[in-house]
Design brief:
The radius of gyration is 14 Å and the shape is flat. The protein has a single domain, classed as Urease, subunit C, domain 1, CATH 2.30.40. It contains four helices and three strands, in the order αααβαββ. The N and C termini lie far apart (about 30 Å). A three-stranded antiparallel beta sheet has the order 1-2-3. It is of the alpha+beta class and about 90 residues long.
C-alpha cells in the first residue's frame, strides 16, 4: 500500500504519515489508545517499532514492499524479531 501513495506524496511524506503521524493520531484517541505511553518518537521509554532497511527507503520506497529481503533488523516493543546483521 505504501508504494501506491507515492503517486500523490513523496516517499518521505508517505513514511512520515504512516509512522510518526499515525502515532500522534493514536495519542489523540485518548482512553481508546491501545498503546499507553509516548508514541511517534524514538527515545528511551517510548513505544517504538524500528526497522533497519537495506537501502535508502526515502529514495526508493519500493524497498518496503519486500520486507523479507530488505528489512535487516525488525524491533517491536524493544524486542528484536529479526537481525540479519548478526548472521
Amino acid at each position: 500500500m505504501l508504494t501506491h501513495l507515492v503517486r500523490w506524496y513523496t516517499a518521505a511524506e508517505t513514511l512520515k504519515m504512516t509512522t510518526a503521524a499515525n502515532g500522534q493520531l493514536l495519542v489523540l484517541s485518548g482512553p481508546r489508545n491501545p498503546y499507553p505511553g509516548k508514541l511517534g518518537v524514538v527515545e528511551e521509554g517510548a513505544l517504538a517499532d524500528l526497522l533497519l532497511v537495506d537501502g535508502n527507503h526515502v529514495e526508493n520506497i519500493a524497498l518496503v514492499a519486500d520486507p523479507e529481503k530488505n528489512f535487516l533488523v525488525i524491533m517491536k516493543d524493544g524486542k528484536i524479531y529479526k537481525n540479519a546483521l548478526s548472521a
